[in-house]
Design goal:
Number of helices: 9
Bound molecules: adenosine-5'-triphosphate, magnesium ion
Structural class: alpha/beta
CATH superfamily of the largest domain: P-loop containing nucleotide triphosphate hydrolases
Largest sheet: 3 strands, antiparallel
Order of helices and strands: EEHEEHHHHHEHEHH
Oligomer: single chain
Helix content: 40-55%
Length: about 270
């Protein structure tokens, strides 16, 4: 994770448009955001929220215009419908969130196994040096309590037990596992596309609290939950939610219009609007 820099713009999008075939879903979107910004994207079904987030995440590179992420910053995204490798278990998916540490641990084990082989003095010296370097990286990454960290994260998100095959998971369980993997990655920019879909009320409350904490300690940068009114509560957040230019602004006003209409329709006869 990069060093927190609250006054630094870390992402800019200039005049981005997106077409699927001849159908245009995003038109001339321009936005920049600061490290630590918390942004919501509100829009009707099919208005282009997921398409926008996939461009932010760098998952979709087929668009017109420019998008620039400051060097050294990382982005992680929870997809609206996460695709998990069905041949894996829950634990293996969660471990993908700490792939860097897992890689160094595997290297550390390979080095240790080589000590059992016959080695010249020179080879032994080199191997000890290599072991020291990898150990230093593992110390730095806090790898030695990795198992308990993963257990804690899986418990917090009430993931199914580690050996459960991904292919038998329900929609909500898949989301928990994908979210657990994502939070362990600790990306600088956390993109959540409809994060509360399929999640029960208790987990939604936990997620809100977790996002509040990470926002306050600036551990992560921009948090962009798409279309989750629970997570976009305050006036300020609502204003931020309309950041994405014409398309999103339009849908925000449409939502307000619809809400006003509903209020009028449901108001008892004779009541003032
Ligand atoms: N791969 C694709 N090929 C063709 N059309 C697509 C593709 N992906 C999305 N679309 C269309 O683009 C539009 C925007 O889709 P998108 O998924 O971005 O909307 P959304 O705002 O996230 O909707 P929702 O609230 O339902 O999640 C929709 O009309 C959708 O049918
Ligand atoms: Mg969507």
């Amino acid at each position: 994770m990069a060093t927190p820099a609250p006054d630094k713009i870390i992402y800019s999008m200039m005049r981005v448009s997106k077409f699927y075939g001849t159908k245009q879903v995003l038109k001339d979107i321009s936005i920049s955001y600061f490290y630590g910004a918390k942004i919501g994207v509100i829009g009707l079904n099919g208005s282009g929220k997921s398409s926008l987030l996939r461009i932010f995440a760098g998952v979709d590179t087929e668009f017109n215009g420019q998008a620039v992420l400051s060097p050294g910053y990382t982005i992680g995204m929870l997809e609206q419908e996460p695709h998990l490798d069905e041949s894996k278990t829950v634990r293996q998916i969660v471990e993908e969130g700490v792939a860097e540490i897992m890689g160094f641990l595997a290297e550390f084990n390979r080095i240790n196994e080589r000590f059992a082989e016959p080695l010249s003095d020179d080879e032994m010296t080199k191997l000890i040096e290599q072991q020291g370097q990898v150990q230093e990286k593992l110390d730095h990454l806090g790898a030695w309590d990795l198992d308990s960290r993963l257990d804690l994260a899986m418990d917090a998100l009430r993931c199914p037990s580690g050996e459960t095959p991904v292919k038998v998971l329900s929609g909500g369980e898949k989301r928990r596992v994908a979210l657990c993997r994502l939070l362990l990655q600790k990306p600088d920019i956390l993109l959540l596309d409809e994060p509360t879909n399929h999640l029960d009320a208790e987990t939604v409350a936990w997620l809100e609290e977790k996002l509040q904490q990470t926002l306050h300690n600036q551990a992560e940068a921009a948090k962009i939950p798409a279309s989750t009114p629970q997570l976009v509560k305050s006036e300020e957040e609502r204003r931020l939610a309309s950041f994405a230019g014409a398309i999103v602004q339009e849908t925000v006003s449409q939502i307000e219009d619809r809400a006003a209409k509903r209020r009028t329709q449901t108001a008892p006869a004779g009541a003032s609007p």
